[in-house]
């Protein structure tokens, strides 16, 4: 039978047993965008809406086998990277991507969960900077992550604007800085995409809730939109709209107040 093939996107990230973030959020987001989702699990978390209770990293050969299995059979239009946990995992993922050379790589530099759990070991930062940033089509840090990567304080929209322009000038790839943690943005949240020759700002009304899985969902939505052929500014606009709508329809599933996104 000659049925049309959907486009494929691969997430290499951590699993969230609570189903709100990580691989589980990524696959729901891909499905909601009409993209076939593939996954290579780089870390397993035992997790609910109140925190992370355990983390386990698969063996590096098994991680590599998952990635190779995906590239050996599917046409992968975009790769999204999330929680990679350790320097060794980052090196293994970078080695695999340098061999397979996907056209699009969205790097979500996951470091700490909203619950406060540490999702990246401190000594992995150098590997993240030196091995993954050079491969990225776009990097999608929140402000605390961007402060660490760019080594400067980021509290206001103006500080974001200056840091993003400097980041593109010195690192080359595009940056989508997420403004949810900015202290001077009480009514609106502004996310800013920095390209070599332009910047684009995406604004949405701030919602009065604490959510789980927004970063994973945004990066996956950007990857899915790029996979479907959108250009980066349109992919980011649509992805930020998607996260805002998913948050508006969000729900509480665990015992904490954290809201999970509704992937429609
Ligand atoms: N768990 C996993 C596996 C993740 O990848 C992430 C974020 O990327 C989180 C938890 C944290 O999600 P949040 O900070 O939205 O609570």
UniProtKB/TrEMBL annotation:
A GO term, aspect molecular function: ATP binding
Keyword field contains Cytoplasm: no
Gene Ontology CC annotations of this record: cytosol
E.C. number: 2.7.1.49
Pathway: Cofactor biosynthesis; thiamine diphosphate biosynthesis
UniProt keywords, alphabetically: ATP-binding, Kinase, Nucleotide-binding, Transferase
One GO process term, biological-process aspect: thiamine biosynthetic process
Chain ranges of the Pyridoxamine kinase/Phosphomethylpyrimidine kinase domain: 16-256
Gene that produces this protein: thiD
Record keyword Kinase present: yes
Name of this chain's protein: hydroxymethylpyrimidine kinase
PANTHER family, alphabetized: HYDROXYMETHYLPYRIMIDINE_PHOSPHOMETHYLPYRIMIDINE KINASE THI20-RELATED (PTHR20858:SF17), PHOSPHOMETHYLPYRIMIDINE KINASE (PTHR20858)
């Amino acid at each position: 039978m000659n049925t049309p093939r959907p486009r494929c996107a691969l997430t290499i990230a951590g699993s969230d047993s609570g189903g709100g973030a990580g691989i589980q959020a990524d696959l729901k987001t891909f499905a909601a965008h009409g993209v076939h989702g593939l996954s290579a699990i780089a870390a397993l978390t035992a997790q609910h809406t109140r925190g992370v209770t355990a983390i386990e990293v698969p063996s590096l050969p098994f991680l590599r086998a998952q990635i190779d299995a995906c590239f050996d059979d599917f046409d992968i239009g975009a790769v999204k990277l999330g929680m990679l946990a350790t320097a060794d995992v980052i090196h293994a993922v970078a080695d695999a991507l340098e061999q397979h050379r996907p056209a699009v790589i969205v790097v979500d530099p996951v470091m700490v969960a909203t619950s406060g759990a540490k999702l990246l070991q401190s000594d992995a930062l150098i590997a993240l900077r030196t091995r993954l940033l050079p491969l990225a089509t776009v990097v999608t840090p929140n402000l605390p992550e961007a402060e660490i990567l760019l080594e400067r304080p980021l509290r206001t929209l103006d500080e974001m604007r200056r840091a993003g322009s400097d980041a593109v000038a010195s690192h080359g790839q595009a940056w989508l800085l997420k403004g949810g943690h900015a202290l001077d943005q009480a009514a609106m949240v502004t996310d800013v995409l920095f390209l070599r020759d332009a910047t684009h700002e995406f604004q949405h009304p701030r919602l009065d809730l604490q959510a789980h899985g927004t970063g994973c969902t945004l990066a996956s939505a950007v990857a899915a939109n790029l996979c479907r052929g959108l250009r980066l500014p349109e992919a980011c606009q649509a992805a930020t709209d998607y996260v805002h709508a998913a948050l508006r329809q969000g729900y509480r599933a665990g015992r904490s107040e954290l809201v999970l996104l509704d992937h429609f």
